[in-house]
Structure prediction request, 400 residues.
Amino acid sequence: MPDTRRLPEGFLWGASTAAHQIEGGNTNSDWWEFEHSQNPIVKEPSGDACDSYHRWREDMDLLAELGFTDYRFSIEWARIEPSPGEFSRSAIAHYRRMVEGARERGLRPMVTLHHFTNPLWFAQRGGWAAAGSDELFARFLTAAAPIYATDVAHVCTINEPNIVTVMAAAQTALASGQAVSFTENPPAPDEATTDALVRAHARAVETVKSLAPHVHTGWSIANLVCQPLPGSEDVADSFRHPRQDVFIEAARGDDWLGVQAYTRTLIGPQGRLPVPQDAERTLMGWEYYPQALGHALRHSASVSGGTPLIVTENGIATADDARRIDYTTGALDSLATTMREGIDVRGYFHWSALDNYEWGRYAPTFGLIAVDRETFARAPKPSAAWLGAIGRTRVLPTEY
Prediction:
């Protein structure tokens, strides 16, 4: 009888990071300005982050030594195009060296072209909702082609566009003096930003394919694993679609779709419900619910019409690394179950490779590798060795 927990040949096994969260000193981005604008969302600025702009070699060395075969990282638009139409050859060369460095270490790079942050000039002209944003994004991708045109098999166009639309709405609310809560009642997505991001993704796929036809393109969606109470199914559907499913539907026909899942959202007759009082919570305030990954994979496969799936983020913010191993074991168990059911899953990337800047604070630690905030010394956690070893054995763990 075949081993149903053995990963198929070519399965991607890696960890993920985002440029702004680990590089440090991203002073030309809209997020840098947002961090220094005195708003209730930001508890502390990113500053030097993990100094990975200079220490990326060490980060890749650790991942390769631990047993990972893949590394997902993003390139920073604000560094590459600090002013409209002005492209930094130095920044392009830097990210190209990262691609080459990954390959030299036996890591397959997945390059994310946009992970939340924009150049400040792009934000000041109106961001994604402004006319011509898709054209400007395509211009950037054309200039950045030397980074991904060779030695890269997978490109993620835009990370979590559904979260970008909520952030756009939140910034509008903050500017008008309204209170914003992402944990209990996040704002409804900005419709103009939603439409613009769908156009930008399509334009990005077209641009990348024209410059590097061999590259497998897709984008990654933050999955809201909506679990309705009896009689609330229609409420869950109406809650889910503008916040998630419109973007999953846009992935039909793509080479792959990124699935990012961490927890579940309970839905009652009036909408989103709070986390149950007796539930274990992570450092993000989310319910500890590793089975969310399996639910997200099934839903994404159904809505996307069977587009191949890659788990581009999954993990837990915790100071207890034993809970990280327990959570990830449960998540991988749900992944193995979906694959046995016939769902086409082609990779798994853990979030995150490093403890990093979590969009306003450093306290939620998702990393497999700890980073000293003073010295930047890296220290792999037991979970890093445990998860990396699966990359060598190619066999998923058994939960019980």
